[in-house]
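Weekend entry, working from home. Most of the wet-lab plans are on hold until the incubator is repaired, so I used the time to fold the two sequences that have been sitting in the queue since the last round of cloning. Logging both here for the record. First:
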Amino acid sequence: MSNESVPRRLERTPERDEVLRRIGRNVVNFQMVEALLKHLNANASVHGPASQLAERMEAQRTAMHRKTMGELAGKMVAQVFQAPAESQTPDEITEPWFGFHFTVETDAQFIDQHDQEMRALVAARNDLIHHFLPQWYSAVDGDAETALTYLDAQRDETFRMMDRLRGWVKALDEGRRQTAAFMTSPEGKRQMELGLLQSSHLVAMLGEIALKTARPDGWAYVTTALNLIRREAPAELADLQQRHGHQNLKGILLAAEHFDVLDEALLNGGVRTVYRINDRYTLQLGQDVASEPTSASKALPSVNQIDNSRPAPGQ
């Protein structure tokens, strides 16, 4: 070890105190950048069922707390500058499922520039913490100006990055606030209940039966759907009120908003209920279904899902 690297006791002078002050200032600034990186990485993306959401968010915060500044910088580039996976929701869910992802939309040139600037800042932080001692001794032995210039240049670069990260954190937190406000609003709660109903196996079966048993005019009988489901999947009809909030299939069809429902008058004075998939949605059937006969008895085992990606006319 060189003599310059051996810690030695130094008398306080105004110049030495100023170097120490600016070292401490820069260390705090680097810690603020690191805290912003931890916040962005821990909160930019979260997906999961409602019952596990708080646990998953806490796990992400804990994981980020253990990472170095360099690891946080690299992870942020990979996460915040990339679009989320197309879907992180399982095919079948039994409770409300939440997904939130914050993305900064920009071009490849800016991403590369940011990455280089972030790497340089990490290197500057490591240089200050681990390698500044020789410069410090040079400063206290008379050349304080060089050390102060070095420390001020570090501060300027840190402030530029800090301002950028603060802007992203502000946008992220505002997005989370708006999402939370919507989810707790009456409309948000309605949408959650609707989404859970629309993603249910029962509604998917009703859609497939509507396609496979439709009359030439496109309408299918609710009684046909009831009989098929009762025969092939009777558990889907158990406790409709408790599971879906409706007492019968007609109520399910109306609430799901996937279907048109009509009561037809009969010659004997009675009525029968028919339904069809409305023009806002399409039902996607798997490849195995297309190759099989389209008899009603084949309808239930091969259910895929309702695709609700098409907006309603005028929306």
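Second, folded right after the first finished:
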Amino acid sequence: MSERVIEVVAGVITDKRGRVLLSRRTPNRDMPGLWEFPGGKREPGETSEAALARELDEELGIRVTVGAPLIVVPQRYPAKRLRLDVRHVAHWEGVARGREGQALAWVAPDKLGRYSMPPADLPVVAALQTPDRYLVTPPPGDDDAAWLQSFDAALRRGVRRVQLRLPGIPGDRQEALLREAQIRCRLHGAQLLFNGPVDVALAAGAGVHLASAALQACTMRPVPAGILLAASCHHAGDLAHAVAIDCDFVVLGPVAETASHPGEPGIGWSEFARLRETCALPIYAIGGMTPADIPEARRHGAQGIAAIRSLWSPD
């Protein structure tokens, strides 16, 4: 018999200043003192929308119009499993008060990371703060100018997080392309991570993306706090190691069959969600993904999608 999953709903409530409402767990609950997005358990036969409206009325004394889905986070705790369904609150009326004795805080979105939260709420913060797509660059071939033009085009289409991969490229050319890519990312306000030598990445002011083998070879975080660190993961062991060395986010897959590995099935969304339960890091789904898959990815706990072809040349 499979273990029962507790269905929980939560709302992202914002005020006129754009601040987000957090609620503090009371001493009589598990994980007391941690901050969370307000909400509660969905009762049998109740829709997520009805449950969220009821919970926010009971907990805060406000009447809400439930808006678009944000993310669904499956999370395993030592004594339970839950599925956190998070919705934007499109409109609300009343004055929010902690009707169950809980403290409340209105927090600027960029300050949410300062609040200690349960593991299931951490991916919600990432979904609110950071990009929902992660471009993995293809090899540059023999024409660096053309490759940089395509890089520019991807940034103009809105890509704001990039993993630069330059396998087999000689060191001088690699460093030149990294410098050019970093210049372009800074102009567009995009984040650049280099899948290559850590010292080269740091010299260029870029973050670091670890291939799975490089991840397993690390015994501690290889970059200072404040420098983005990501990793490629394929199984639970990779995810656990990424947590151990304090990665900021990971990619996980392949979820579906990819053009580069035809005939090799991916892990599928069910297995992705099962692995998602085991850690609280932001996770991008990779493998056969396009921007059209972002809603499905979010329904299984992903931050968004990582891809080469669909984000580099979508036509």
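Plan for Monday: verify the second prediction. The longest helix spans residues 171-188.
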